[in-house]
Design a protein that fits this description.
- 42% of the residues are buried.
- The protein is of the alpha/beta class.
- Helices cover 47% and strands 14% of the residues.
- α7 crosses α9, α9 crosses α10 and α10 crosses α11.
- The chain contains 11 helices and 8 strands.
Length: 278
């Protein structure tokens, strides 16, 4: 299968890796060919580190990378599966899918890696069928894929996506469209509540996270988790949950907005509620 992945950042590179590892051709796209090539080079460097640590053979790494390619936009016309994982913004996603809808072959399947947005709205006006295929970060390590059915997603496409997820080594759960789906509807408010506790002065950031790790057996606390996800993404999902439901329990804490405005997004910016700068 030829898979075109639009958005070659952390998520897109990870998706490319898992498909290529299972014998599929993964075409990586970014804002430019040069940008996509830089992400491909980062993926190659990451695999080389695994080789150096004895976690992967050089032959396996070279074989995988031989199927990760960087192409011009129009090369997606021949893709069997198109996965978008661009910014979590409905207008941006719809604009990209509209451009792809005009050039891709009729049999191509469209999938969105959205973490919270409506598949039904995204599919509006497209000739191609769309399904949600929500991977989790880091993609190679995380086993879950949420398979999201929009109001007009055919049952056979949902079944195909379930089987494809299994084929690439993931465990799918089928989700009927709802804001935030399953994981983020539960998990992102957890991050938001951690910020509320911090803002109220109940405990320090370090102690809030320790409390949830040792008291609730969570692998990481809400503040480090938000740093990992990115507070811009947390804010975006909280806003979707709030605007779609009108429920005040999904109102984002104002401190998150301040952090995002300050560029303190978490690990990817080097600083969030903890400092990651070397």
């Amino acid at each position: 299968m030829k898979v075109a992945i639009f958005g070659a950042g952390t998520m897109g590179s990870g998706i490319a890796q898992v498909f290529a590892a299972k014998g599929h051709v993964a075409m990586m796209y970014a804002s430019s060919v040069a940008s996509a090539q830089r992400h491909r080079d980062k993926l190659a460097a990451s695999l080389n580190k695994r080789v150096a640590k004895g976690k992967m053979t050089q032959e396996a790494a070279d074989d995988l990378m031989s199927r990760v390619v960087v192409e011009e936009f129009d090369a997606a016309a021949d893709a069997d599966l198109v996965i978008e994982c661009v910014a979590e913004n409905m207008a941006v996603k719809k604009e990209l899918l509209g451009r792809l809808d005009a050039i891709c072959k009729e049999s191509a399947i469209f999938a969105s890696n959205t973490s919270s947005l409506s598949i039904t709205e995204m599919a509006n006006g497209l000739n191609h069928q769309l399904v949600g295929m929500h991977f989790f970060n880091p993609v190679p390590a995380m086993k879950l894929v949420e398979v999201i059915a929009g109001a007009n997603t055919p049952a056979e496409l949902v079944e195909f996506t379930k089987n494809l997820s299994i084929e690439i080594g993931k465990t799918p759960v089928v989700v009927n469209e709802a804001p935030g789906f399953v994981v983020n509807k539960i998990l992102v408010p957890y991050c938001n509540e951690g910020v509320c506790v911090l803002q109220e002065g109940v405990a320090s950031a370090e102690d809030i996270d320790i409390a949830m790790q040792l008291g609730a057996n969570h692998p990481m606390g809400p503040l480090h988790l938000g740093d990992l996800i990115g507070w811009d993404v947390v804010l975006s999902i909280m806003d979707v949950l709030y605007h779609e439901t009108g429920d005040s329990k999904y109102r984002a804490n104002v401190l998150i907005r301040k952090m995002v405005r300050a560029g303190k997004l978490g690990i990817k910016s080097g600083e969030g509620f903890f400092n990651y700068k070397k």
